[in-house]
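Why show two proteins at once? Because comparison is the fastest way to build intuition. When a single record is shown, students tend to memorize it. When two are placed side by side, the eye starts asking what differs. So, the first record is below.
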Amino acid sequence: MKRYAAVLIFLSIYFIITSSCNELKRKSNAKHECFIRGTYHAWWVILGVDTSSAIQMLHAHEDMADVKLMNKTLTGFPPNQHPVLFEIGKEYNCGPSVSSALRSDFLEFKFEIPFVSSFKSKTSVLNYKQRLFESSSLNSISSNIMYGLDAFKAYMYMSDSSYEIKLNKATFKANFSTTDNQPWMRFRDYSLFKPYETIMNMTWFGRRKFGVCAQHTYDFDTALVKPSRAHLMFNKSMINPYFPHENYDVDQLSSKNLFGAVQIRINFTMTLPETCFE
């Protein structure tokens, strides 16, 4: 009964959003007039996995004959590895821009494989958001239906230095730490952040069979960042069965570690999904 009620609520919200967006597009003839907005507090963690494992990971959940890895444009990244990204955090006041009454706070986890391409897409560089976990049933349903994302409602917990996800018998745990008295810094004052900016600016897609893409626009000018060390522990089956390991230690972003982990607070907007594959 609860699931049925959630679906009805979602369909009502979807109708409101779609009607409002269609009206805005009709009046302005603008392509990206409607969007989701919110504030993100998260840890962003880049891992390098060997290229052969990355190829297997790319096709772990869906057969995508037209999608392949492409050469990454991250200066200094190991040539025999491909980057994958964890977004581990919480969305605040997040939802449709048409009404603040439709926005909410919820935990959200994303696992992504950036730097992929498809000969059926007009966009040359794509980010594949392969798996999502959300603490909100309504948001996980809307992520699936509207954006074609492989999203799951799960038990999730976040503190100032830890994160936990439980789904059935599988778990994901992360612990974070920073240098004592490490202050928050303005993003624009921290030149080492470029790899993350490159990935986060990419057009992204979820399950290939839906054939749609979307894009975030992050307000990097007002963002605050803090280098952070991360220890990740998870069941491979929960994220991707082709992960080489289930435990990873990632040092903080620094001049000695150009692909280290960071903590970030940032505002964003997000487009509605659009067809991007032929």
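Second record. Ask yourself what differs from the first in the token line.
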Amino acid sequence: MPQAGKPVDHALRARREADIRASALDVLTSKGYAGMRLDEVARLAGVSKSAVYLYFDSKADLYKSVLKSLSVRTAGEIQALRSARDLDYPQRLAQTLDTLYAAMLESPMGALLPVVSETARQYPDLAAYFLTEVRGPLDLALLGLMAEGVAAGAFADRPITRSVPLLVGPIVALALQQSIAANVAQPPVLDLPALKRAHYELLMAALVPPALPDTPS
């Protein structure tokens, strides 16, 4: 918390918080939540351990902030695609997949999935936070896009339009595989563009309403 009587430099505070989160992310991906020590986070961020507590109330608070910061941008990008009137719904879905693949496979979010899973088993409150505050906004944005596509007649009203796991399951599986393969001397090479294209084609095959039969003249 900022000291009483002193004006708050919001830009400095934002930079310090970002530096501490970045350092915490490095420690989390290498040592997990149980192995994260705030003194190590502080050292990597170039601040004292007591300074960490000026910005985050606890280790759990810092962990939550790291997760939230990684998901906010992705949820915002999907929300923006929902209102992209220059794109039809299949195009919005394609760009949403691009956003999700980038978030899960080209950013630290995917590397944190094993950490999140391990942490959830030991700390139910942190598991609940992940589901409601991190996954929740992403799920709502994605399901909102699908519901709007159904309402517009672009997608069929099928179970897949109401199930986030059915939509993003392949991306999560690839992210976990990539995280595991990072520890292998010669990890398998994934053709992500081809996998993404196949994923999109499978989704569209399930989502596009069947064509109505021609009516006899």
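One difference worth noting in the second protein: The radius of gyration is 21 Å.
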